[in-house]
Amino acid sequence: MNRKTVFGPIHSRRLGRSLGINLLPFKTCSLDCVYCECGATTDLTLQRQEFVPLDQVRKELDAFFDSGVPFDYVTFSGLGEPTLYSRIGGIIRHVKNRCPDTKICLLTNATLLDIMGDELDGLDLIVPSLDGSCEEEFRTVNRPAPGLTLEKLVRDIAEFRKMHPRIVMWLEIFLVPGVNDSDDSVNRFRELIGQIAPDKVQLNSLDRKGAVDWIRVPPAGRMQEIQAVFAEICPTEIIHA
Ligand code: SF4
Fold first, then answer.
1. CATH of the domain at 26
2. Residue 78 CA: which ligand 1 atom is closest?
3. Beta carbon of 38 within 6 Å of any ligand 1 atom
């Protein structure tokens, strides 16, 4: 496969100059989120694979590091769920060997955290998504691969948090008006945030076109109301309103 996996650095509103790594063919994911900016998932799977040869990724990274272009983060993101790439641990180790001071971030839907072993130990920042406050909302917003449940997702994120105290965790919640933004939902989310105890919560909402056309942006002021509730137990910021 000859397509490039390393792109950027691009300006990220959260991470500054972010060198992206996309390890997946369009559009491979364990979820099919209604808000996904990449569009609908065409390969809904939990099967991990080496979609791109590890050597190719290492060579692309080396070429970038040799160029001397400044950047703030190496970020796993792109056209699907990065942990579906079966050799992600090898990439993390390579980056840390080549540039020990480089910060590495993983944007993840967290559905495979329980089977990652020590592969993610070299991360500096993990940003898992949690978009359902109950199973029904999880199914409506995230449209998961068969077998995935919110209960498992929350358990796995909380376990990861406990087992990796060095890795900073920002928990991202995408608000879909009419689905997961009611007062009941907010109270349930508050409970789940308490269980996970991330360093920070980030509230997100529709910015670009999603995978379906019925999502709207939250009504004026609603995100701020929700932010105030979550901020009682955890620093919370709005990354798009
Ligand atoms: S987890 Fe991410 S890549 Fe996968 S469908 Fe959801 S938003 Fe898109």
1. 3.20.20.70
2. 3
3. yes
